[in-house]
């Protein structure tokens, strides 16, 4: 661990204002280091995003970092190998070499076969969703003593989850166009308001970023909608953020069941800090919905909030049960992979630049406690409580592990 500099209240004041003391600036310059970063091709055929855009690569290489990308890794996101070469990256077909970098960036977690190619003690950043992890995969990570940072767990300085928020913003903007296309084909319905014709009814479960985006689009189109959530505070926040009147209700069996039976479209966007979304709509409730009702389960990556939900793919995004169409694609932003990659790249670049200035990824955990919270496996131990609970693994405190290593 880097030496901790003595400081005084005046230095604390400067830090709060975003002004670094001269000693800290000297420490940063002295400890700055180049990081070798790899971007392997996603093995999941349904994942089209990539963690860094060519623009981000140019910025990182100009700051002394080395970037190596597997040939064709950015093609599904609309970035060519020549784009990355011009940005200063190396493009390689040597898979064994690509997996030997100090830091690996992926969207989905590495598979057991990919972990086998990594060196002991390497770090990687990827998704850590319920859908992608398994007990065997975590055991393989810990056997290699890898440092695994989950995008879902990373917090910003305000306690928010920036990666979740930006992907939810994209998913929320896609939901209504997806619903429009599906319900027009299935039932010949137009979602927008037409004079003399009753509009479609829309029920939104959740009061987060996804629902905020859907609500804005629905209000503009003249679609009637209701928002249900368990948390009054979240409903109040949503009303304040939207700035126009909406119908909100706290989830309870009687009101919810009635609203669902009158709806043409139901969007489930409830997320849980535990990693598993609570099941709000039972199979019995789904069986009583009108035939042709459309369900879009946006939180299927956490198990889904409909009991009848099952993970789908971009190639086959829907299935029917009880005459109800289910859309359960876990990585909706991958449908607009270029935009989603740019958004993710903006956040990732900030982290890597700071890691380089502070002496590396591990030192960054001390300097940026928000990314420390993103670590779910560290040097042979599970460090994220929700991950440990989900897969029945003992959990160690990340700060204690870092202290014991220093």
UniProtKB/TrEMBL annotation:
Oxidoreductase among keywords: yes
Domain Alanine dehydrogenase/pyridine nucleotide transhydrogenase NAD(H)-binding positions: 180-328
Keywords: Oxidoreductase
EC numbers: 1.4.1.1
Keyword field contains Oxidoreductase: yes
EC class name: oxidoreductase
Alanine dehydrogenase/pyridine nucleotide transhydrogenase N-terminal domain mapped to chain residues: 38-171
Leader sequence residues: none
Family: Belongs to the AlaDH/PNT family.
Annotated protein name in UniProt: alanine dehydrogenase
């Amino acid at each position: 661990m880097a030496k901790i500099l003595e400081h005084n209240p005046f230095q604390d004041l400067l830090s709060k204002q975003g002004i670094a003391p001269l000693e800290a600036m000297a420490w940063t310059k002295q400890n700055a280091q180049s990081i070798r970063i790899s971007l392997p091709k996603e093995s999941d055929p349904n994942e089209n995003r990539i963690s860094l855009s060519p623009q981000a690569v140019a910025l990182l290489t100009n700051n002394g970092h080395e970037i190596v990308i597997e040939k064709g890794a950015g093609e599904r996101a609309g970035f060519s190998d020549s784009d990355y070469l011009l940005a200063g990256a190396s493009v390689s077909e040597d898979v064994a070499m690509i997996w030997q970098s100090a830091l690996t960036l992926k969207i989905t977690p590495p598979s057991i076969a990919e972990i086998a190619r990594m060196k002991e003690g390497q770090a990687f950043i990827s998704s850590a969703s319920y859908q992608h992890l398994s007990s065997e995969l975590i055991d393989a990570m810990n056997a290699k003593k890898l440092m695994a940072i989950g995008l879902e767990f990373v917090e910003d300085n305000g306690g928010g989850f920036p990666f979740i928020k930006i992907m939810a913003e994209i998913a929320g903007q896609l939901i209504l166009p997806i619903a429009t296309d599906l319900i027009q084909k299935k039932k010949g319905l137009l979602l927008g308001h037409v004079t003399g014709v009753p509009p479609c009814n829309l029920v939104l479960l959740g009061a987060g970023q996804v629902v905020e985006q859907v609500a804005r689009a629905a209000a503009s189109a003249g679609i009637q909608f209701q928002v249900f959530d368990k948390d009054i505070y979240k409903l109040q926040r949503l009303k304040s953020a939207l700035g126009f009147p909406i119908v909100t209700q706290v989830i309870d069996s009687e009101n919810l069941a009635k609203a669902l039976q009158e709806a043409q479209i139901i969007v489930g966007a409830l997320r849980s800090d535990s990693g598993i979304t609570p099941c709000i709509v039972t199979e019995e409730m789904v069986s009583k919905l009108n035939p042709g009702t459309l369900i879009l389960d946006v939180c299927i990556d956490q198990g889904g909030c409909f009991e009848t939900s099952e993970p789908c793919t971009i190639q086959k995004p829907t299935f029917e049960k009880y005459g109800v169409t289910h859309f359960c694609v876990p990585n909706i932003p991958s449908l607009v992979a270029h935009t989603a990659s740019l958004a993710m790249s903006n956040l990732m670049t900030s982290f890597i630049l700071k890691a380089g200035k502070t002496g590396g990824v591990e030192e960054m955990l001390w300097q940026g406690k928000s990314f420390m919270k993103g670590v779910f496996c560290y040097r042979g131990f599970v460090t994220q409580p929700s991950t440990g609970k989900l897969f029945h693994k003992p959990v160690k405190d990340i700060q204690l592990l870092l202290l014991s290593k220093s």
